[in-house]
C-alpha cells in the first residue's frame, strides 16, 4: 500500500464498521446499563476517581444516566455508519470526515470513561485509529504530520502485538500449554468443547499456545519481510482474530486490530522504499 491516504481511509472504514457493530451490540444489551443492570452507573461511579471540578462530575452523572447513555450509543452508531457511508461513497469532504472521526473518538473515550469493566485491547485500538485518522484529516494531506499519523497507527499495532506476546511468554500457563484450554472452559470467554478438547490433548494445547505467542511477538516482522510475506502475515492475523471472535466472543478485536493493517502495510512500503 503505497499511499498514506489510501491506508488511512481503509483503516478508518474498517474501524468505523467495528464501532457501528459495537454500538449495535451495546444497544441490543441496553439492559445491562440500566439502574438495575450489572453496569449501572449508579454503582460504577463509585469505582472511578471523582472529577476535581464538581461541574465535570455532574456532567458525567448526567451523560451516563440510562436514557442519556442510550442516546450516546445511538450517536456512536450513527457517527460510525456515517463515516462508513462517506468513505464508501468516495472523495468525502475532509472537514466533514474529520468532524465525524473526532466525534467517534470522543464517544469511544466517553465509553471508556463510563466503565473499565469489559474493556479490552480493541477499545484501545479504536482510540488509536480514530486519533490517527482525525489528525490525518485536519493536517495538510501531503504533510509530514499526515505521514506521522499513519505511522503512529502502525507503530501502536506492532507494539500491541509484541507486548501481548511478551506478556504471554512470561506466563507459565502459556509456556506449558495449559492457558488456552483453561480460557476456553470459562463461562465468559470460553467455548467449552474446545477447552475440553485442548485440555485432553496437552501437545496440541502446547502447540496452540506457542503459535499465539510466536505470532504476536513475530508480528513486527511484517515491517521487514517482503511484500508477499507481509500480506501472508496479515492474513494470519485476520484468521487469528476471526477465530477469537467465533470461539471467544471477542468480536471487537477482529475489526479494531485489522483496521490497523493498512497502516502497517504503508509503513512496510515506506521502509522498503527507503523513506524510513
TrEMBL record:
Residues 1-269 form the HTTM-like domain. It is a multi-pass membrane protein. The keyword Nucleotide-binding does not apply. The keyword Transmembrane applies. Signal peptide: none annotated. GO terms for cellular component: endomembrane system. Keywords: Membrane, Transmembrane, Transmembrane helix. Its main location: membrane. SMART domains: HTTM (SM00752). The chain crosses the membrane at residues 68-89, 95-111, 145-167, 203-225, 231-257. The lineage of its organism: Bacteria, Bacillati, Actinomycetota, Actinomycetes, Mycobacteriales. It is found in: Endomembrane system. InterPro entries: HTTM-like. This is HTTM-like domain-containing protein.
